[in-house]
Amino acid sequence: PPIDEILSLHDFEAVARRTMAKRGWNYYSSGDDDEITMRENHNAYHRVWFRPRILRNVGSVDFSSSILGHKTSMPVYITATALGKLGHPEGEVTLTRAAGKHNIIQMIPTLASCSFDEMVDAAIPNQIQFLQLYVNSDRSRTKKIIKHAAERGVKALFITVDAPQLGRREKDMRTKFEGNASSQQTQGGDNFKRDQGAARAISSFIDPTLNWKDLAELKEAAGEMKIVLKGVQSWEDAVMAAEAGCDGVVLSNHGGRQLDFAPSPLTILPQVVTILKSRGFMTPKAPFEVFIDGGVRRATDVLKAIALGATAVGIGRPMIYAMSTYGEQGVSRAFEILKDEFEMNMRLIGAPTLSDVVPNMVDVSALNSA
Ligand code: FNR
């Protein structure tokens, strides 16, 4: 359909399902095992309700935000998703360009189809980019990547910690992996397995021995870049990350692509934030930011996460579905849709700015009940 018939982020998925090549669709859309966590990621948002306020002068609303000290037009960033060329021949640079136009931060994936430098070169001056990092068993490779990222102006490293082994995504495994993996395939050498889907073909270099003791070394290599752990799934680990000197965590289960029956990030967010604050983190003196991703499809989803203490949320699949069917224009359309949704919904809940989106604007009494 023509792009102006796309009215929500859900629509991009419906169109991608019908139009994408099977290989790409199977890789993008799959979750682990029975995909219970993947579905729950979005469903959890259905159990949080607003407590709208009235008569608050919402003549103009402001949803601009700041992520790790960098201004952005919305409390939303493009999270890392691998293998962009399975969806669009130009790959991830289409995301970069749309992000630049809309002042949105892009998290560059280690396993992108485009090279890291292509994605940095596609950015406009002062466009902020983060790098998602899979830590290689060969640490010298990882350190090289970190050093290069710092030289190219990347502002933060998001170290993925929920994937010591890639999950079983059966839909993807039924597709034989053909062609070139990512430009980063040299990460793992050329001997990747082609017969069990894209995910397994490209991930064999990831180090399963990675542990808390390795953080100091990575932090040191990162220099000025901030460090965020992506894939935290309990308050205990969020506290450990803060105590280890990280700058934040992403509560995430990798879009339901790793452990099935991992909790939806939204369900653990209130507890994580309460406990971090009780330990003195998330304050001006000890700034620590909590992000979440998984199943975010509407500005109302984002506003719920913000009310519960998140700084911003990551959006994955809708971005690559938009890219796959409409290229850069599709990704831009996704941002425009979100902006319209923010404006209307902030008016309707009675929040002129994001700092007005506080815990008592949501009712979470049903969030953690069956
Ligand atoms: C991912 N994700 C991911 N995460 C990561 O740290 N490194 C990676 O290479 C990838 N690759 C990847 C590929 C695809 C196709 C998907 C869908 C996801 C996980 C991603 O960053 C994020 O956690 C989820 O995508 C968020 O969920 P939604 O928005 O897709 O529901």
TrEMBL record:
Domain FMN hydroxy acid dehydrogenase: 1-367
Coiled coil ranges: none
Chain ranges passing through the membrane: none
Oxidoreductase among keywords: yes
Keyword line: Heme, Iron, Metal-binding, Oxidoreductase
KW Cytoplasm (keyword) present: no
Domain of life (superkingdom): Eukaryota
Cofactor(s) listed: FMN
Annotated protein name in UniProt: L-lactate dehydrogenase (Cytochrome)
Lineage, broadest ranks: Eukaryota, Fungi, Dikarya, Basidiomycota, Agaricomycotina
Parent sequence residues shown: 121 to 490 of 513
